[in-house]
Amino acid sequence: MRRPPLLPEGSVETVPNVLEKVRELCGRLVSLAPALVVLEATGGLERPLVRELSAAGLPVALVNPRQVRDYARALGKLAKTDRIDAVVLGSFSKRATPTSKLRDLLSRRTQLKEMLLAEKNRLRRASPTLKEGLARHIRFLEEELAALEKEIAELKKAEKELAEKAAILESAPGVGKVTSAVLIGYLPELGKLPGKQIAALVGVAPFNWDSGRMRG
């Protein structure tokens, strides 16, 4: 049975960015089992919520504020308030393309790997008192990472365009499933532009660097 939304379509609720309220919000979201919780990166203010969402096992994606603002302009919403931002962000997340969804999942994968590395480094230096808790958190992060990588693989298979690109990329020696996902997610122009243009876009094409007497 389809669960009701947390709030009616287009409505907004303000939640204070304090740990107690953040955890209360996460508890409500757990009961709704959302497909994805989308947050706008805000210079670090979002980190407590990201941590609590991850600890609750909820799928979360951080999006670039510039992309959301460009989308808002395309909708004709030039004013900027917390309420407008929330509505636009909700609309933006629902209209995300398969490629942008893949990119969000890849960004989350990077975040999890960074957290795993940090926790493993802490475990090596930790006192016996802290080691059990750190080991438990590492296991949790490893499970989250495995589930996320499975979701990435399923998305690539489910979307025809992504599946076709992945098959071509993975036919090249040395290109595996993760590499193909990264290339598809972060370089959607791949397959749509000639090789020289792609090389220039990525930044691996040589260009003249001539200035005054310098020739490079």
Strand fraction: 5-15%
Helical stretch tally: 9
Low-confidence stretches: none
Global shape: globular
The biggest beta sheet reads: 2 strands, parallel
Structural class: mainly alpha
Key features?
9 helices; 216 residues; mainly alpha; 62% helix; two-stranded antiparallel ribbon
Explain the overall architecture.
The chain has a domain at 1-96. The chain has helices at residues 19-32, 47-55, 65-74, 82-94, 98-125, 128-158, 160-170, 177-186, 195-202, and strands spanning 37-40, 60-63, 210-211, 214-215. The mean pLDDT is 82. 62% of the residues lie in helices and 6% in strands. Helix 5 (98-125) runs antiparallel to helix 6. By secondary structure, it is mainly α. It is built from nine helices and four strands, in the order H-E-H-E-H-H-H-H-H-H-H-E-E.
Brief rundown of the structure:
This protein is mainly α and about 220 residues long.
Topology (SSEs and partners):
Blueprint: H1 19-32, E1 37-40, H2 47-55, E2 60-63, H3 65-74, H4 82-94, H5 98-125, H6 128-158, H7 160-170, H8 177-186, H9 195-202, E3 210-211, E4 214-215
Parallel strand pairs: 1-2
Antiparallel strand pairs: 3-4
Helix pairs in contact: 1-2, 3-4, 5-6, 5-8, 6-7, 7-8
